[in-house]
Design goal:
This is ABC transporter ATP-binding protein. The chain is of the alpha+beta class. It has a 6-stranded mixed β-sheet with strand order 6-7-8-3-9-10, sandwiched between helices. A 5-stranded antiparallel β-sheet has the order 17-21-18-19-20, with no helix packed on it. Helix 2 packs across helix 3 (117-130). Helices cover 24% and strands 35% of the residues. Residues 1-7 have low confidence and may be disordered. Bound molecules: adenosine-5'-triphosphate. Adenosine-5'-triphosphate (ATP) binds at residues 23, 26, 28, 46, 48-54, 202.
Length: 358
């Protein structure tokens, strides 16, 4: 497990330690600690209002910090002027200068830093190439697509070689149909830039595909910080399982013949269960969308659930069902005859019992 309360600011990369942010009486962020190593991308993700943007803005110096510390490249920047921090910010609306060409936008920060003209031209050319904008160098932002404008903002932020790149909801302003392709494109550009990056997003797919590590927040606090695989395979709690994977996590009791969940009302035979290790200390059962099936069995290996909702999804009907106050998703063939309640069983091998290391 990553140490969530590492109190130092002297490490390379970005170190946010025990960060607290207040707006009047509202504590928007409480005791959040996140580290971004040089060369990695950390995605801060969570539902609306959980404090993601506040955290990013505090790193950029745009929101005052009520407690904790922020270190960047070995310096304590907690109270430093935004312009002197060494951060490159790409805001949600990209904020490119409409009256300047693509190349002019990218050169802006270099001019402000009085970089000699030949080095400036070289750096602009490098950034144009990295973001595949060379052909469009002379255009104005108004003559570009949303995705191209985003690349201009990215190139402009990276041009000045920041110690950390900050991206606020990088794909939110773009057409949903294009987002998948743009996500892959952004991921490739970020890895070739080699710059430590902090991305804020509310989209779990974006977090999973862009983050080398994910910081999952809820109501101002950090719930889990780890690699996408760690969060996917061993979620800290039911909220993480649901938010990131639409999965259900149940407290479980293990016995030689299997596992009991829902206070012993559902007993799943050992031969139907996969197992995985957990670092979270308790035995739990992880059920995904493909973990369950509707069955004719009515023995202890099945549980009765009330059908709450049925949704046609093309190749299947996705049922939302409620068993003893827990809501599950289960897919059935489109022509299945479904009553008001169903009997649910685990698809052998598709449910994972997370077991603490001895
Ligand atoms: N300037 C402000 N003044 C007062 N409250 C604020 C201010 N900015 C944010 N908040 C509050 O702080 C909390 C965290 O907001 P923040 O914008 O950081 O969340 P978020 O996770 O980025 O949400 P979203 O995904 O909706 O942008 C929210 O309750 C919000 O209403």
């Amino acid at each position: 497990m990553t140490d969530l309360r590492e109190p130092e600011t002297g490490a390379p990369g970005l170190t946010v330690s025990d960060l607290t942010i207040r707006y009047g009486d509202t504590e928007a962020v409480r005791g959040v600690s996140v580290q971004v190593r040089p060369d990695e991308t950390v995605a801060v993700v969570g539902p609306s209002g959980c404090g993601k943007s506040s955290t990013l803005r505090a790193v950029a110096g745009l929101t005052p910090v009520a407690g904790g510390a922020i270190g960047l490249g070995g310096r304590d920047i907690t109270h430093l002027d935004p312009a002197r921090r060494g951060v490159g910010l790409v805001p949600q609306d990209y904020a490119v200068f409409p009256h300047m060409s693509v190349a002019g936008n990218i050169a802006y920060g270099l001019r402000a830093r009085r970089l000699p003209a030949d080095r400036r031209r070289r750096r602009v050319a490098e950034m144009l190439e990295l973001t595949r904008l060379t052909e469009l160098a002379g255009r104005r932002p108004g003559q570009l697509s949303g995705g191209q404008r985003q690349r201009v903002a990215l190139a402009r932020a990276l041009a000045v070689e920041p110690d950390v790149l900050l991206l606020d909801e990088p794909l939110a302003a773009l057409d949903p149909q294009l987002r998948g392709g743009l996500r892959r494109e952004l991921s490739a550009m970020l890895s070739s830039s080699g710059c430590a990056t902090l991305i804020v997003t509310h989209d779990q797919r974006e977090a999973l595909s862009l983050g080398t590590r994910i910081a999952l927040m809820r109501e101002g606090t950090l719930v889990q910080f780890g690699t996408p695989r760690e969060l996917w395979e061993d979620p800290a709690d039911a909220f993480v399982a649901d938010f990131l994977a639409g999965a259900v996590l149940l407290e479980a009791e293990r016995s030689p013949d299997g596992a009991a969940v829902l206070d012993g009302r559902w007993r799943i035979p050992a031969e139907d269960l996969g197992t995985g290790p957990t670092g979270h200390g308790r035995t739990r059962l992880l059920l995904r969308d493909d973990s369950l099936t509707v069955t004719d069995r009515d023995d202890g290996a099945a549980v009765t659930a009330r059908v709450v909702h049925a949704e046609f999804v093309g190749d299947a009907v996705r049922l939302t069902v409620d068993a003893h106050g827990h809501v599950f998703g289960v897919r059935v063939p489109p022509d299945a005859r479904i009553g008001r309640s169903v009997s649910l069983a685990v698809v052998p091998g598709r449910a994972t019992l997370l077991v603490p290391a001895p």
